[in-house]
Amino acid sequence: MKIYAEDRLDNLLGSKRHELKQRIESETEDYILNVGEEQYVEYLKSEFTLDIPEIHTDKVYADTYEREIHASRFPGEFMITNPNQSFKKDIIVYHIPYSGSIDLLKFRPSSWTTMAGYEIQIDRSSRTIVLEYVNFYNDPEKIKRSYDDSVRYIFGSYQALKSDIEGYNNSLEGFIRSTLNSRRQQIAQKSDFLSSLGVPIKKKGNTSQTFAVPQPKLKQKIQVRPVVHSKGFKPEPTLDNDNYFKILKIINDVGKNFERLPSVYSGKYEEHLRDHILLTLDPNFEFGSASGETFNKTGKTDIQLRYDSSVVFVAECKFWTGEKGFLSTIDQLLGYLTWRDSKTSVVIFVSNKNFTSVLDTSKEAIKNHPNYISEKAASDNNWTNYRFSLPDDPNKEIQMALQMFHLP
After folding, report:
1. How far apart, in whole angstroms, are the C-alpha atoms of residue 214 and residue 269?
2. Start-to-end CA span in the chain (Å)
């Protein structure tokens, strides 16, 4: 294999982005509108991320074997009378282990040296770069210098190649989200246009394939395309992330105030503490209203924010009663939710003296919940954010904040 000689890496990266864009554009409208964004983004990232080749010179090993070497390959200082003769010589073999996609070494990065085109052997069964040297002089220093020269050629443009691939990989998520959002906006605009015609619209009969296992690309790992169960899509009001975190910030501020004034709030019931939160939330948001103990799907919730007839935020307030009760609270909250509700919070009041221990227990326990997907960045030492799925629709993702306050 000749390194840094096949094509410009920029061309490969451009073709990968084009392929990724075509993948998103080839999905049906129903699939794009109903698929969970986080799952779909992670699926595409995993498939289109390039596996950077790592060359492990710290794990190199060598062996030797004998081979017939033709006279024409001997250095000039060797006086060989018969130019057609061959001689048995020792071959010193260096094996340099590698990981990742070694074929990426074929491409020229944005900055490359004049060593492009240097030939190396690849043993894919042992995942090593193989460098062979004929032992003409029986001089280990000469062999070592030849090996060092080869390593220098291999690494001549390696850092630039690695930097270019890392830049592509790091930009993937933003590119995917931008392309996905653009596609969704196009679909929404078309839907609005068709609706404005004032006549019934007949949908096409073809539906998207809801499950597929793509062929492995550069990484030898099979990724599963997210499943979409919903057949149709109707736009519903949603709470944007900025307002969602403003709501959570208000709840957090009120909870911290509970902690600062234990003589006022200690001993209160959940309903009393909830009412204090509601009294602060309601005047802060003009787009909706805050209410307590209102019905949503199958039960009562402690806090809801509504826009018109749609619920856009749901929170559940409970006292800590242990790990089992905590997980039951999450079950209770998830049981209230419909597919329209995607922004939630579990507010836990802790009367235990060892608040830190309860925090640690909750963070471990929540990962054992069957609908847990992943943890996101924490907003405070008592406030962590998570991704969950709905019990009846694993494709539908919700955001859930866990906010805990110490009220001994």
Report:
1. 53
2. 69
Model confidence at 289: pLDDT above 70: no
Name the pLDDT band for 217 (thresholds 50, 70, 90).
Answer: very low
- Residue 187: per-residue pLDDT: 84
Q: What is the C-alpha separation between 7 and 15, in angstroms, rounded? A: 12
Domain that holds residue 220: 1-53+100-116+157-235
Closest Cα to residue 251, out of 401, 42, 73, 143? 401
CB 251 within 8 A of CB 403: yes
Domain total in the chain: 3
Cβ atoms < 10 Å from Cβ of 200: 6
41 and 83 housed in the same domain: no
Q: How far apart are CA 310 and CA 49, in angstroms?
A: 38
The residue ranking higher by pLDDT, 283 or 246, is 246
* Paired tokens of 215: 């062929």
Instruction: For the beta carbon of residue 31, count every other beta carbon within 10 angstroms.
Output: 21
pLDDT tens readout for residues 135-163: 999 999 999 999 999 999 889 889 999 99
Among 405, 408, 407, 406, which Cα is nearest to 252's? 405
Q: Token pair for residue 168?
A: 């592509």
pLDDT above 80: residue 82? yes
Helix (H, G, I), strand (E, B) or coil at 55: strand
Check whether residue 277 and residue 348 sit in a common domain.
yes
Percent of residues, the chain, with pLDDT higher than 70: 81
Question: Is there a single domain that holds both residue 202 and residue 246?
Answer: no
What is the pTM assigned to this prediction?
0.56
138: left (phi over 0), alpha (psi -120 to 50) or beta: left
Average the pLDDT over 7-33 and give the result. 90
191 shares its domain with 292: no
CB distance 393 to 342 below 8 Å: no
Domain's final residue, options 235, 250, 285: 235
Q: Where are the beta strands (DSSP E) in 258-336?
A: 289-291, 294-296, 299-301, 303-307, 310-319
